[in-house]
Each structure stands twice: as C-alpha cells, then as structure tokens.
Specification:
Elements lengths: L5 H59 L7 H37 L4 H11 L8 H12 L4 H13 L3 H11 L5 H10 L5 H14 L5 H14 L2 H15 L7 H15 L29 E7 L7 E3 L28 H8 L10 E3 H16 L5 E7 L3 E3 L5 E2 L2 H12 L9 H9 L6 E6 L11 H12 L5 E7 L9 H13 L5 E4 L3
Parallel strand pairs: 1-4, 1-7, 7-8, 8-9
Antiparallel strand pairs: 2-3, 4-5, 4-6
Helix pairs in contact: 1-2, 1-3, 2-4, 3-5, 4-6, 4-16, 5-6, 6-8, 7-8, 8-10, 9-10, 9-11, 13-14, 15-16, 16-17
C-alpha cells in the first residue's frame, strides 16, 4: 500500500482544522442564538405572569359579583380583553419555550464533551436559572448523555464548579447512572460547603441505593445536627428514609444504631426500598390527612368548581361493634336523625371527621376533615395556615399562626365559608405556601388538573417546586380527592402528578377514588 505523501498529509490536516473551526463556529453560533432566545423567553414570561395575575384578579371579582351589579359589564369586557391578551402571550410563551428547548435538546444529541460544555457555559455562568420548562428539557437531555468524555466533564464540574446550581443539576443527572465512579463523586459531594448541594447529592444517592453511601449519608446527617440546620436535617432524613425504607427513624443516632445493628448486614442495594407508607406515632388520624406530625404546617385546599361533584368516601364504615353504620348523608343515625345538609354540617364541622362510606360533595368532605384536623388534631404548640385556591389564591393568614383556641375557631369560620367556584390555579397555590419562610410541611389537596395560573404543565410545576424548596427541603404530602364524577376528568395525569409531588418532596400520596 502506497503511503500518503506530504501533500496528502497536509490535505488531511487542513480538512481536520477546517472541521474543527466549523464546529467551533457552530458552538459560538449556538450559544449566541440560545442567549438571544433566553432573553426573549424571559421577557415573554414576565409579561405573561403579569397578565395572568390581572386575569385571575378580574375573574375572581366577577365570580363574586352578581350579574346585575353596575360594575359587572365593564369588568366583563375588561376580563375578555385581558383573556385574549393572555392567550396570545401564552402562545408566544409556549412557542419560545419550544424553540429554545428544541435547540438545546437537539444540540445535546451530539453526545460530546464540547456540546455539554457549551450548554453549561450558556446556562450556568452566574446565579440565574434557565426557564422552568427549559431546565426540565436540559435535565432530561443530559441524562441521555453516554459519551465518556462528556460524563468526565460533569464529574469534574461537580468537584470544581463554583456555581451551586450547576453542581445540583449534575447530582440530578448522575442519580440515574449507577456506576462506581459516579457514586464516588456523589459521596464526595456530601462534604460540599453548600447544604443545597449536599441534599442534591443525598437524593441522588438515595435513588442509586449504593451500600457504600449509607455511612457517609449518616455522617452528613450528624454534621447537620451539629450545625442545628433544620432544613438540611429534613433533607438528609428524607434521603436516608427513602434509601433504606426505614421511615420510623428520625435522628442520625437512630440511623447509626440501626446501621450498626441489623442494617449493615441486611441492606441490599439491588433491591427496591419499600415505599413510604402510613407513618404515625399513635396519635389521632384523619381519613384524608392521616396523622399530623408537623408543628409548622400549611394545608392547601382546592375550592375550584369541580369540588361541587358528589362522591362516596371509599370503604365501608364499621363501628366498634363490627356493624355497618348507616350513612349520615342518606338519613343514617350517626349524627342523630334526619337533618338538612346545613344542620348536619354545623354539627359535624370540628367535631369529627368523615368516615368511609360518607356521601357528599367533595367540598363538604374536605371541610369536615379539615375542620376536624384544625380543632381536634393539631398539637397546642403547633403553628399552621390555610391556603385555598381556585382561580384566585387566598391565604387565611399572612404567615403561620399559633394553634390557640381563638385561632382554631377563626380558622373554623374560614373553613365554613369555603365554596366551590372558578378554575384550578395549582401553581399559584403552591407558590403562596412556599412564601412562608417558617413552614416545614405542606398538605396539598386537589381534585383536578391545573387549568389556570403561571403554568398548567405538571412538569413545570414540579420543577418550580424543586426550585422553591432548595435549601428548605419542605415535606409535601399530596391528597387526591377524586370521588364522584365531574365532566371528563383525566385522573391518570393528576394521580401521576400527585405521586411525583409527594415522592420528590419526601411525602406521602393519598388517593381517594371510587373504583
């Protein structure tokens, strides 16, 4: 075979240089286009959020106003104008998100180190976040990267990057890659100076379930206790519980004793940990809410129009003698004879919760249960708040309030006034709860998919919750009150969302529906 001459070698090198320069130019052009699209998306998102707030306010006023009110017609005209503007901005927002997301995901299909580096330079040079929808696409795309050099870059960035947002993202990416070098990198990250990054690494390791990570996680938990950092302690406790399936263990000492006892020998990293079950300490329980163990809690309540649907609480109510009780909604004797709905509600609210077999509107089931929790179940030293959401979001109090007798009675009055109307602003409800800096546990109840608010996309809401919870590690329990029938409801998507909301935030998901 004839060896290539000098001219051939020069030609090959020239082509390689041209190709390298073309790729460099392509990366530069990609970064320029992405930055431009990101600025456009940010401006559109701000305009859409402002218009949405105005729309929700106008719609709420109209829902509370009689049609013969003199202000009704001009408000209705303004409402329709704002609605038209909002729909136009929503189309622009979705288009901008789609264009940017497609460009990012397409570029990362190159599955190369340079492509991953280019994306990191665009989105993680500084403290700003990418848009919630784009961040989810970015995470999903990075999880598909298999190129060894690209993954080495991620590990290197995890160790050296000064940007906590980049380090947290990499932890999420490595959680799906069960490999010794990635596990080792995540374990080392448990020593990070930023607790948000430590928790991101802990959650990734909990998903990975490598046995080598258990002791380092317990040590990180011990450091958090030494620092008396409640948020870090919550995050590490959740990670260890999810990793080991030992949900009754609360402190680092509990986990250390368990590990040094039966844990070390019995732990199998290749098995799936048992799911978070009904965890309790023997206190009173609610049919909907279970046992309330937090003393800094917010209850988020869906009061949209679909809550007017009637349904039956699953199960058969059995009294202590083993006999089936008659249903109070159908004239039974549990509440002492036949009474009107208002009379029954007046007697029941705050006195006891609903029992399996109770038939009534979803809103009534919620009100009876919530009143029972507020009056009878909250510890005296607890602090709590109530948030209702339909088109508008309302907070009972501006912040957590002591569970004094007077405050319980005031909360009961607030519960009694709940009435179903309007749409479902899931994003706004969760956002309002996270504005309280003291809350550590949220109970989120819903009976339908989001229909209004800053975004109605489940994935984007979950991404936003992940952002809000960073550094706080708030536990979220989700409740799906899906009894009865209201229109053509798609419970499958809602149940998936509620399950993800709870599992991603260390909580329990409770679904109530009639089979």
């Amino acid at each position: 075979m004839r060896k290539p001459g000098l001219a051939g070698i020069i030609a090959v090198l020239t082509l390689a240089l041209f190709a390298q320069q073309a790729y460099a130019d392509e990366i530069t052009e990609f970064q320029r286009n992405v930055k431009e699209l990101a600025r456009k998306l940010q401006a559109t998102r701000k305009a859409f959020a402002a218009t949405t707030d105005k729309f929700n306010s106008l719609r709420g006023k109209l829902e509370r106003m009689q049609a013969n009110h003199p202000d009704y017609r001009p408000l209705a005209i303004e409402h329709n104008q704002v609605l038209k503007e909002r729909r136009q901005l929503e189309r622009q927002l979705n288009s901008a998100r789609s264009e940017l997301s497609t460009k990012v995901s397409s570029f990362l299909t190159r599955n190369s180190r340079k492509a991953v580096e280019a994306v990191f330079k665009v989105f993680y040079r500084g403290s700003s976040y990418p848009d919630v929808a784009v961040e989810q696409v970015l995470l999903d795309s990075l999880r598909k990267v298999t190129n060894s050099a690209a993954l080495d870059f991620l590990v290197s960035e995890l160790k050296t990057s000064r940007r906590k947002n980049a380090r947290k993202l990499i932890c999420d990416v490595l959680a799906d890659k069960k490999d010794e070098r990635f596990t080792s990198a995540l374990i080392s990250t448990l020593e990070d100076k930023n607790w948000e990054v430590v928790i991101a690494a802990a959650r990734a390791l909990a998903k990975n379930r490598a046995k080598a990570a258990v002791e380092p996680l317990i040590s990180a938990f011990e450091r958090a206790e030494d620092k008396n950092d409640e948020a870090a302690m919550r995050g590490l406790r959740q990670a260890l519980q999810e990793m080991t399936g030992e949900y009754m263990l609360d402190t680092a000492r509990d986990f250390r004793n368990w590990w040094n006892g039966k844990g070390r020998e019995g732990y199998n990293e290749n098995e799936t940990a048992r799911p978070r079950g009904l965890i309790g300490k023997g206190g009173p329980r609610s049919t909907l809410y279970g046992e309330i163990t937090s003393k800094k809690v917010i209850f988020i309540c869906d009061v949209s129009h679909s809550m007017s649907a009637r349904g039956k609480v699953p199960g058969e109510p059995i009294d202590k003698t083993g006999e089936v009780e008659k249903n109070p909604e159908t004239g039974g004797d549990v509440m002492g004879g036949r009474k009107s709905r208002k009379e029954r509600e007046k007697q029941r609210l705050g006195r006891q919760g609903v029992k399996p077999g109770y038939v009534g509107r979803r809103i009534d089931i919620l009100k009876i249960e919530l009143a029972h929790v507020v009056i009878s179940m909250l510890p005296d030293d607890a602090k709590f708040n109530l948030v209702t959401y339909s088109t508008e979001v309302k907070r009972w109090k501006s912040s957590l309030t002591k569970a004094s007798k007077a405050n319980r009675e005031a909360a009961l009055a607030f519960v009694k006034k709940m009435d179903p109307m309007g749409m479902t602003n899931t994003y706004g409800a969760l956002e309002a709860a996270f504005k309280d800096s003291k809350v550590d546990t949220i109970y989120f109840l819903s009976d339908g998919n989001p229909t209004t608010g800053t975004t109605i996309a489940h994935a984007e809401i979950l991404t936003a919750v992940r952002r809000w919870s960073q550094g706080r590690n708030i536990t979220i329990h989700s409740i799906g009150l899906l009894v009865g029938k209201y229109g053509n409801e798609d419970f499958s998507k809602l149940k998936k969302f509620l399950q993800d909301l709870a599992s991603q935030n260390g909580g329990e998901c409770r679904i109530f529906e009639n089979k």
